[in-house]
Amino acid sequence: MNAFNLSFRNFGLLALGLGLGLSLAAQTTVQPAAPVKQVYNEQADARADLNRAVAQAAAAKKQVLVVYGANWCGDCQALDRKMSDGTLAGPVAKRYVTVKVDVGRFNRNLDVAEQMGVSLKKGIPAVAVLGADGQLVGATNGGELADARNMGDDAVLKVLDGMQTKR
C-alpha cells in the first residue's frame, strides 16, 4: 500500500465518522432553552424602589422584604416562583411589601446591600426585612436561601420567620 492509499483510507474513515456524527446529530432534536423570566429589573433605581416599598409598607402596616438576586440565578428564579406563584405567595403578600434588587453579576447595587448589612458573599438570593419605618429588622448573611431551588416552602418560611425579631 502506498502513502496515497493510506491517506485516502484515513480520509474515508474520517468522512465515515463525520457522516455517522452528522446522522446522529440529525436524529437528535435539540429543544430550545426556555426563556429566563426577568424577575429582576436590571435598569431599576434600587433606592427609589426601596423608598416606594417603605411608603407602601407604612400605609399597609406591613414590613418590607428586600430580595437581592439576579435573572441568571436559578435559585433566585426558584425563590421568586415560590413567593409569587406557589404556596408561599399568600403568606408573603400578607406580611410584606416585596421589592427585588438586581445585583447583576455582583456588580450592581452592592452598596445598597452593604448599607443594609446584607452580605452577598455566601450567595444569592439574599434577603433583608425592613420595618415599615425603613429600619432593618433582619437579614440573611450566611447563604440561607442560596439553595432555594432545593428548599421546601417550610424551610423558606423558617428563614423569613427567623428575621422577625422586632416590630
Automatic annotation (TrEMBL):
Residues 1-25 form the signal peptide. It comes from the Bacteria. This is Thioredoxin family protein. Keywords: Signal. Transmembrane segments: none annotated. PROSITE patterns: THIOREDOXIN_2. CDD domains: TRX_family. It comes from Roseateles aquae. InterPro entries: Thioredoxin-like_sf (IPR036249), Thioredoxin_domain (IPR013766). Residues 18-165 form the Thioredoxin domain.
